């Protein structure tokens, strides 16, 4: 293929502006998670985020306008992923499969997005100054739906009576997010070594089994 043919092929298949935007936004969000997790909102700068992303600082402002808006986007991004993980409550009729997939997905997110989880934890510990509205609207509506599913399983005697269904959700969140928010502690207690992929998979299965047993289901 000659140079002219290559040029024609490239011209016919250029990267769209939309794909470039999506790629850059993902790079920036990933970098921002790490910076916000380490320094918090007040201690972070757009220069730190740009350096982490290996992009010009102007790109941060072009795509997200302000540091605060980028911070909120990071928080909403991890919330959306957590909410998607709970889709199983509506897609599976049997609680064993719904809980198994939900807990497994939450564990996987703690493995793949530990910094996002830490940013969320720090925001909540600080009194949710930037997320209070979302907590009282979107999050509450989503939790109410999950609670309704759990109560239905109890009513149909598919799981044992867990009392307040919120407690079951809190237990799942606390256990799964522990592997993200307290990963350094997990490492220290693992003889100073980070969990290997196989070790993490073993922990994930143990957590799934524990949650299933807590509602009277065999793993």
Task: Let me know the largest β-sheet.
Answer: none
CATH classification class of the largest domain: Mainly Alpha
Question: Under CATH, the topology of the largest domain is which?
Answer: Tetracycline Repressor, domain 2
Number of domains: 2
Give the CA-CA distance, first to last residue: 58 Å
Strand content: under 5%
- Give the helices and strands as they follow along the chain: HHHHHHHHHHHH
Care to describe what's here?
The structure is a single chain. This protein is mostly helical. The chain has two domains: 1-65, Homeodomain-like (Arc Repressor Mutant, subunit A, Orthogonal Bundle), CATH 1.10.10; 75-214, Tetracycline Repressor, domain 2, CATH 1.10.357. The chain is 79% helix and 0% strand. The protein has helices spanning 3-12, 17-43, 46-53, 57-64, 67-85, 88-91, 95-112, 114-125, 132-155, 165-181, 183-189, 197-214. The longest helix has 27 residues, at 17-43.
Structure summary:
The chain is mainly alpha-helical and 219 residues long. The chain has twelve helices and no strands. The chain has helices spanning 3-12, 17-43, 46-53, 57-64, 67-85, 88-91, 95-112, 114-125, 132-155, 165-181, 183-189, 197-214.
Explain the layout of strands and helices:
Elements (H helix, E strand, L loop, with lengths): L2 H10 L4 H27 L2 H8 L3 H8 L2 H19 L2 H4 L3 H18 L1 H12 L6 H24 L9 H17 L1 H7 L7 H18 L5
Helix pairs in contact: 2-3, 2-4, 2-5, 2-8, 3-4, 5-8, 7-10, 7-12, 8-10
């Amino acid at each position: 293929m000659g140079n002219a043919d290559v040029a024609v092929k490239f011209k016919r298949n250029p990267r769209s502006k939309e794909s470039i935007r999506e790629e850059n936004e993902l790079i920036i969000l990933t970098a921002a998670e790490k910076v916000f997790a380490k320094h918090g909102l007040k201690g972070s700068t757009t220069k730190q985020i740009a350096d982490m992303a290996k992009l010009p600082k102007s790109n941060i402002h072009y795509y997200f306008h302000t540091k605060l808006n980028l911070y909120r986007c990071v928080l909403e991004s991890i919330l959306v992923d957590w909410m998607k993980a709970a889709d199983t409550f509506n897609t599976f009729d049997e609680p064993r499969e719904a809980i198994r997939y939900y807990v497994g997905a939450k564990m996987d997110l703690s493995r793949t997005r530990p910094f996002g989880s830490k940013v969320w934890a720090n925001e909540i510990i600080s009194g949710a100054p930037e997320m209070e509205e979302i907590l009282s609207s979107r999050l509450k509506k989503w939790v109410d739906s999950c609670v309704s599913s759990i109560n239905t399983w109890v009513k149909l005697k598919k799981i044992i009576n867990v009392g307040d269904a919120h407690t079951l959700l809190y237990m799942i969140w606390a256990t799964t997010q522990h592997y993200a928010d307290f990963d350094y502690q997990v490492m220290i207690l693992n003889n100073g070594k980070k969990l290997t992929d196989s070790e993490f998979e073993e922990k994930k299965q143990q957590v799934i089994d524990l949650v299933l047993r807590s509602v009277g289901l065999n793993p």
